[in-house]
């Protein structure tokens, strides 16, 4: 459904002569609906962990989590779903907002799910040796359970890790170094109006804190960025001199906006810049239960406060370039129309469900003095089609055309090459797919020479 809606929008734009190059890069994933972003910086890349809203949802219907990564904040590689409800044998539903942290050479994914035995929300922990998984259940049972949601984990400079979560309350525990157990009692953080702002019209919840805490530290100051005052939510924040408080409410980070009555924040520093992740309902068919993750670059004020950040369609500027002379996964995308991704038989993911006129945009491709050839790994159970290499827009300068032949199956792969001319400097590359009716072919990876 989502791919069809995006295709319709593209046709409408073409019909009213809106140049395709005007397509922006927020939301950053267009192939599925994503929600509840949790970014992690690791080894020169940002790994973005999200929930997955099912198409046509009328509730928070979420069965799996997904992961994407980027080295430049605009071209995002889809790594698929390395963890789902079935990872936890004791969970029955609700793969909701979580977060991944790295420690001990492993990656720990803290998530809220419904405990089948109790019917309550509980916090589970997945573990993997790679940031892209696969993740397995670390302990075979809930780490903590009190019916509340939205875990976030912060590791302080002294090595002490803290797990926070909660709606309607805000809780924390001190995690042990193994990251899968804790010492001491589950402690409730006092939700005071001085600490978390004043809510009006709801005596049961006098503060603005709603859910979705994100705790981080900068220059010795602790920040708790949270979803505030449902519904519709905005993003507020508080600061403290220590990881458990006392907290002081500092104001609004992102006002209520964006066609989703919830929001959920993640904050990181990467390659010298600060980034704020959130979700909205900006994709076609989007809304409160079909959300999409987006990102903005921001700068802290001189006094350490966070400025007000507004949702944009432009998103964060590119932080680096993309090297076309090494293998690039076809599912590395700045913007796409029509296509979907799926598991590939050779491992990883591939781009599929390609129709005539669909395209993928890859931003800031550093061609340098010029490319002379293009190679791609393709498969087709039908007659195949063509990959047009366009520069600047889907209808921009044609730098080359590669034919993707029939191979006898959607996972029966062959490698094709074609000559290229005019691809120099740093350009936005559009892989435009053309051919007959129906699905044309799949693409696993590509590379220029």
From TrEMBL:
Keywords: Carbohydrate metabolism, Glycosidase, Hydrolase, Polysaccharide degradation, Signal, Xylan degradation. Residues 326-449 form the CBM6 domain. GO terms for biological process: xylan catabolic process. InterPro entries: CBM6 (IPR005084), Cellulose-bd_IV (IPR006584), Galactose-bd-like_sf (IPR008979), Glyco_hydro_43 (IPR006710), Glyco_hydro_beta-prop_sf (IPR023296), Glycosyl_Hydrlase_43_Enz (IPR052176). The keyword Signal applies. It comes from the Bacteria. Residues 1-24 form the signal peptide. It holds the Pfam family Glyco_hydro_43. SUPFAM superfamilies: Arabinanase/levansucrase/invertase, Galactose-binding domain-like. The record marks 150 as: Important for catalytic activity, responsible for pKa modulation of the active site Glu and correct orientation of both the proton donor and substrate. GO terms for molecular function: carbohydrate binding; hydrolase activity, hydrolyzing O-glycosyl compounds. The keyword Signal applies. Belongs to the glycosyl hydrolase 43 family. This is Putative glycosyl hydrolase.
